[in-house]
Structures are given as C-alpha cells and as structure tokens.
Amino acid sequence: MPLHKTITVNKDTSIAIWKVEESEDELSNGITLSQHCQLRYDGMKSEMHRRAFLSVRHLLALFNYVDSDLIYNESGKPHLKDGHLISITHSHNFTAIIISKKEEVGIDIEMQRDKILRIAHKFTPFEEYRTLANTEAIIRKLTIVWGAKESLYKIYGQKGLSFLHHINVFDFSFSEKKTIAEIVYQGAISNYDISFLEFEGFTCVYALLKK
User: Fold this and answer.
1) What is the pLDDT of residues 42-71, one digit of tens each?
2) Which of 138, 96, 107 is nearest to 121 (CA)?
C-alpha cells in the first residue's frame, strides 16, 4: 500500500498523501462507489485519473470512511456526511486529502514545472520573485503560491474570486515551510495559515482558517 505520508496538523485535522503505483484493478479491489461517483468514474477517459480517483477512496478508508460518506454540494465542493470538513487533490501520481472535525480546510498538490513561469502574471505579482537566486527557486516559490491560492479557493468556494486580485499570499522562506494569506472579497477579509512541503518534484500546500 503506497501511502506516502500522513500528517497530524492538530488534534482535529489530519492529512494523508498517496503515491499512485497500483494498477486500476488493484485499486478497485474492496472499493464500492456510490451511483454518483460511479458515473463520474465511468466518464473518465484517462486511466491515470481513474486510478487517482480510486486512490482517494483508499485514503478515505484510512479515516474509516467509505465512498458513500462523501457528498458534493451544487458547486461540486466535497463534504462528509458526519459534518467533518474535507478537501481533496491530485496531481499526476499523487493524491491527498485533508480532513478536519471543526474547521474549513483546503489542500493542493502541484508538480513543479517551468510552465508556471508563463502563467505567473495571471495569479501573482511576478516582480516579487525576481530577487530569487535562480529559475528553479522561482518555480518552487511560484508553485507554493499557486498551491496556496488553490487551497484557499477550495475553502472559499465562491465564483468570481480572483487569484490575482482577491487572494494575497505573504512572502516566506523555503525553510519556514509556512506563511499566512488573506482573502479580501466583497468587503470582507479572512486570514489563513498556510503550510507546505516538497517531495519528488511535487509541492503540497494546505490552508486552515487562522484562529
């Protein structure tokens, strides 16, 4: 079972990350999908997406949940039937979930790629990162910022929220592995704690409402 990592964020919040190495048949073993999720699964053309989808069900099982415990609201945001909060992410051969008993949470995994240099202007003031030592460092930092904004977007869940104009991620060092961020939208301000980790050319970022 390629469980890559588990993280206890606090007494109410946990993360589990899966490295998808099994075949689709192996991942299907022991998994029963709800009608809604079976339709989603059947509609996936990519085998990698189907394998990732199934691996998330194995992650749920680590917390004693089954697929039918996972429900989605009208905007597609996932929830758990017992009222606990959840966020789900996948990128290539990694998937992850974060579950909290009490607070809204968001998580995102991204592969570190130079493509992010071409789209950076769409989600962050790029000039902030020109002082970094080399291109690799810029890619790493931009990937963390993108992951943070993705995580916050998953928490906020409102159409019209702009990565560039409404979400601000404060500067940080790689060694700190954390920062803070704010969403300023429709006259309201909310603040969040951001944490990140890097592994095998990937970046995982997760966000919690700041207390």
Assistant:
1) 999 999 999 999 999 999 999 999 999 998
2) 138
Are residues 140 and 89 part of one domain?
Answer: no
Whether 72 contacts 78, CB under 8 Å: yes
**10 and 29 both lie in a single domain:** yes
For the entire predicted model, the pTM comes to 0.94
Tokens describing residue 112: 């570190």
Q: What is the pLDDT of residues 90-106, one digit of tens each?
A: 999 999 999 999 999 99
CATH number of the domain residue 112 falls in: 3.90.470.20
Residues 134, 150 contacting (CB under 8 angstroms): no
In this structure, are residues 192 and 152 in contact, taking their beta carbons and an 8 Å threshold? yes
- Beta carbons of 112 and 175 less than 8 angstroms apart: no
